[in-house]
């Protein structure tokens, strides 16, 4: 099959002779029509985030949209030709992926493959972190950092769709205008990791949940901006690994700081995540309450150009690769 | 009534003319027979931890055991003369306290007032932090710091009683011998806040829960000693407020750092806490699976001496004051 292969020096090469995977018991093979770029792809390419044991070591890609192409034995719920999408531990920069039939979702009715490929990582990461783990619900307030990113734009929309108030931060006014158009109630331009006072000016009681996509010195500001019993859900660390925390605030506010990653989860959790995609998110897309946010659609052959664009943090939303 | 009053300079004076509180709707008055010392008392006396609005500003004391002395209107479940114990927001260094009838518990059968007064703060703090919030359950492993303290000795016993493995730390071999006698599976003598490697030598997969009674630079070591999905429940900060955290570990381990305090909780949570005392803990005391750990019993008039002893961290278990 065709696939974009990484080499040990971080190079990318489009191959046409990679072995096509075969579905096993309870698994299906999907003809990938589109995939999308994640920051984890850049880290994996740079050698700092190896693929898990159940994914190809040399093909990037964490999400896909496509058609079911072949069934393994004992598959009950999925048919050949069905349009499906979801997450994989790796390997979706390729013509085919093999996934367990329980760990996929039918695509929203009438959606294109390019749009569908932009959804799984961004919307599942946002929903899982902010709602399933952070406990965000109607009437509460969430602070979303890096709100113009793939996960950020998803989070703003989800929060709005479930009746929560959204305060969003980004680094440029241009990005904030786009985030505001997606439904953020308040936007804050952050240049120097200082935002707590501006958040508290908007929401004096503090925010209930922080979706933390930056990390580093943002976390101590998050704690200051947090309401009693608030949760900081840590999803990304582009701002650095080291944080100085005031434990006195953690104690006094009965705050929670929680880290989360989707990729390393065991099968039972991946199945649960895809049930969220199918039951919670697909209906919201079909009702138009959520929309994919796409920066650019490129060809798989242009994966490197897409990676360079992500590194520069220029766009708003996802970079999709057509396969 | 008699009560030990604090003045604005941190002094303590035994008064005999303090106004006796009257029970309101749904409240009962308890003739306190014993109370106990908490680190919060020392902080309040030093002016750094004011009493909550619903507690007397000038009488210390967070727990009591005694007899119901008078009933307010609409009290249904409690009778005069009943032996009860529990937590208050303050004011138990006194002959009488008034509490809501839902926020108390009958004492364990056959237990003395001195023993009962040693239980509420220590065992409820430990149970709530370690089990209710930290999710400790049978088969898991908990790391208990300051294990010879009131909360520590309670935590070791509770963990053992519910089928969890216990690794306990303290600063002296003498304290560790007492902790071991209470049921700790492994003990570690900690002088310099370095313990993660020794914990991992005992439990290579890491610990599921840390009961963090020290804070400060212990927290970064906790993170290293933690299993994937592990929880660090922060209860005390005698080691300091500032912590440097490796957010990369929080993310990779999907760890949770959570702060908790009992005293500042609203009524509905205080009621829930006393239901835990009544339903979860009293039966374990009556079956002998948990025992009070008492350092010394003194008279209320000797409260200052008890405080000096606590400051020196000499004893194992609780300092009880007879009223």
What would your notes on this structure say?
Two copies of one chain form a homodimer. With 323 residues, chain A is an alpha/beta fold. Chain A folds into two domains: 3-119 and 263-322, Alpha-Beta Complex (Quinone Oxidoreductase, Chain A, domain 1), CATH 3.90.180; 125-259, Medium-chain alcohol dehydrogenases, catalytic domain (Quinone Oxidoreductase, Chain A, domain 1). Helix content of chain A is 30%, strand content 27%. In chain A, the strands form three sheets. In chain A, strands 3, 4, 5, 6, 7, 15 and 16 form a seven-stranded mixed sheet that branches. A six-stranded parallel sheet of chain A has the order 10-9-8-11-12-14, with helices on both faces. The first copy, chain A, has a two-stranded antiparallel sheet with strand order 1-2. In chain A, β8, α4 (150-161) and β9 form a beta-alpha-beta unit. The N and C termini of chain A lie close together (11 Å). The A-B interface holds A 215-216, 219, 234-235, 237, 240-261, 264 and B 215-216, 219, 234-235, 237, 240-261, 264. β14 (256-259) of chain A pairs antiparallel with β14 (256-259) of chain B.
CATH architecture of the largest domain in chain A: Alpha-Beta Complex
User: What is the CATH superfamily classification of the largest domain in chain A?
Assistant: Medium-chain alcohol dehydrogenases, catalytic domain
Total number of helices of chain A = 10
Distance between the termini of chain A: 11 Å
Q: What structural category arises from helix and sheet content of chain A? A: alpha/beta
Number of separate strands of chain A: 16
Low-confidence stretches of chain A: none
Helical content of chain A, roughly? 25-40%
Main sheet attributes: strand count, strand direction, barrel closure of chain A: 7 strands, mixed
Q: What shape does the CA trace of chain A take?
A: globular
By CATH reckoning, the class of the largest domain in chain A would read Alpha Beta
From N to C, what is the helix and strand string of chain A?
Answer: EEEHEEEEHHEHEHEHEHEEHEHEHE
Mean pLDDT of chain A comes to 95
What is the CATH T-level topology of the largest domain in chain A?
Quinone Oxidoreductase, Chain A, domain 1
The interface involving the most residues is between:
A-B, 29 and 29 residues
> What portion of residues of chain A belong to β-strands?
25-35%
Oligomeric composition of the shown chains: homodimer
């Amino acid at each position: 099959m065709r696939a974009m292969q990484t080499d040990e020096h971080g190079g990318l090469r489009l191959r046409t002779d990679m072995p096509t995977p075969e579905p096993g018991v309870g698994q299906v093979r999907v003809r990938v029509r589109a995939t999308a770029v994640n920051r984890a792809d850049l880290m994996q390419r740079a050698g700092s985030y190896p693929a898990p044991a159940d994914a190809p070591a040399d093909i990037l890609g964490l999400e896909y949209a496509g058609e079911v192409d072949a069934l393994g034995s004992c598959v009950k719920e999925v048919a050949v030709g069905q349009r499906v999408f979801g997450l994989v531990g790796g390997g979706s920069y390729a013509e085919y992926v093999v996934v367990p039939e329980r760990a996929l979702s039918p695509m929203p009715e009438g959606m294109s493959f390019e749009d569908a490929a932009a959804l799984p990582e961004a919307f599942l990461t946002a929903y899982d972190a902010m709602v399933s783990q952070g406990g965000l619900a109607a009437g509460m307030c969430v602070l979303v950092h890096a709100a113009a990113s793939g996960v950020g734009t998803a989070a703003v929309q989800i929060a709005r769709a479930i009746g929560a108030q959204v305060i969003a931060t980004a680094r440029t006014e241009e990005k904030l205008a786009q985030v505001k158009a997606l439904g953020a109630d308040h936007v804050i331009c952050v240049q120097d990791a200082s935002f707590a006072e501006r958040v508290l000016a908007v929401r004096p009681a503090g925010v209930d949940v922080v979706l933390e996509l930056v990390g580093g010195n943002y976390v101590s500001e998050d704690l200051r901006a947090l309401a009693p019993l608030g949760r900081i859900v840590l999803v990304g660390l582009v701002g650095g690994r080291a944080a100085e925390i005031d434990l006195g605030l953690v104690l006094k506010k009965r705050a929670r700081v929680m880290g989360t990653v989707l990729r390393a989860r065991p099968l039972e959790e991946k199945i649960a995540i895809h049930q969220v995609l199918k039951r919670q998110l697909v209906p919201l897309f079909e009702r138009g309450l959520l929309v994919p946010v796409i920066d650019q659609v490129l060809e798989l052959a242009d994966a490197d150009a897409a990676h360079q664009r992500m590194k520069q943090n220029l766009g708003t939303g996802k970079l999709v690769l057509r396969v």
